Hints:
Layout: E1 31-34, E2 39-42, E3 45-46, H1 47-53, H2 56-65, H3 71-83, H4 90-97, H5 104-118, H6 129-155, H7 168-177, H8 188-200, H9 208-217, H10 223-235, H11 242-255, H12 260-268, H13 289-305, H14 310-323, H15 326-330, H16 337-347, H17 355-376
Antiparallel strand pairs: 1-2, 2-3
Helix pairs in contact: 1-8, 2-17, 3-6, 5-6, 5-10, 6-7, 6-17, 7-8, 8-13, 8-16, 8-17, 9-10, 9-17, 10-17, 11-14, 11-16, 13-16
Amino acid sequence: AIDISSLRGQSGVITIDPGFKNTGSTKSAITFLDGEKGILRYRGYPIEQLADKSTFLEVAYLLIYGELPQKSEFETFKSQVTNHTLVHEDIKKLLDGFPSTAHPMGVLSSLVTSLTAFYPQSLDPNRSWEEVNLSIIRILAKMPTFAAWSYKNQMGHPVVYPDNKLDYCGNFLKMMFGLPTEEYEVDPVVSRALDKLLILHADHEQNCSASTVRIVGSSQASLYASISAGINALWGPLHGGANTAVIEMLEGIKADGGDTKKWMAKAKDKNDPFRLMGFGHRVYKNFDPRARIIKKAADDVLEKLGVNDPVLDIAKGLEQEALEDQYFVDRKLYPNVDFYSGIIYRALGIPAEMFTVMFALGRLPGWIAQWKEMRENKEPIGRPRQVYVGENERDYVDLAKR
Ligand code: ACO
């Protein structure tokens, strides 16, 4: 709480809302979210229908351009995205400069920023719509290449070039798991599961990373610079980094003997910094509709791939206990999208350090749509105010006299 008597030299009324819990930063026509009812719609279409019937590239088109594409529009879009997957060969030199200890998220954001150097025309805020659209296509096309290469760097393996005969997810899987010298066959079960996960992550209105993309873009920074900032915002464990934290937590509980009650007690203990990762959400106070879809997808994928993952049982146990626990009920803490996503990623063979990169891959169309909407609406530069609570004016004292 701020003591009102401490407001010095301020004029006008300033609203203090830490974490912007109740502050709308924009009007948006992209994603509708009702946290009480657990509703999520992209451009009016329920997430359940999109996850069931659509594809990630079609959802990307919908988010960015506002409508589901006609067949010919989609063919053009798909062929454009497919044909821009290759990256400038010099980007490999940048990649080679990273030690294999580099976190893939840091590599990803750096490679995305580097596009400003390879396409300097993207820096011009007054460039034509055609050129802006080319930036959109380029980033959509190159992101899977960067994502897969950030993993190859970590493994110390040679990179695999994009294969334009494959679809978006198949191409990514080949670059991620293939070897330059070997044939790689995409498993349709894996590819479809990945596609669904990307759809579920594609946008989520004014979250931390989307707001970052908008605020950076509001200074008329390029699309690439704005997306790179979004990737960094997503990295933290309270946002996209939660998916890695969840699997580490579940592994930890398993290694500790699987006593979920003990960990529930830790999560409730206010003197213990431990939080149940993958639980709670700033906006969903009933359930996260994406978590429901993912939980079912986790069951399906594990069954189809014949994987028996004991951490899935721990996850289900925690969810059940939380449902019956007064602390979690009172605070409306339910599993969020990331609670089950790590289990599927793991079943697909994706290592934990890459989970947040996978999230970034999925969230990309949302960031693009948010950036584009902000620019089309000619929104002013984002510049929050503050309430100053520091010292009053005082005179400088020479170092010798201090
Ligand atoms: N475990 C235990 N207690 C929790 C948890 C949790 N996961 N989440 C919230 N709480 C408690 C808080 O301690 C607080 O209790 P209090 O009222 O007694 O002080 C109360 O619930 C409200 O929590 P806030 O942190 O104020 O809620 P906020 O809306 O600011 O935070 C957040 C939301 C960051 C998601 C939080 O629930 C959290 O840290 N969850 C774990 C991390 C996580 O899963 N993040 C992913 C979010 S989804 C995404 O980015 C895709």
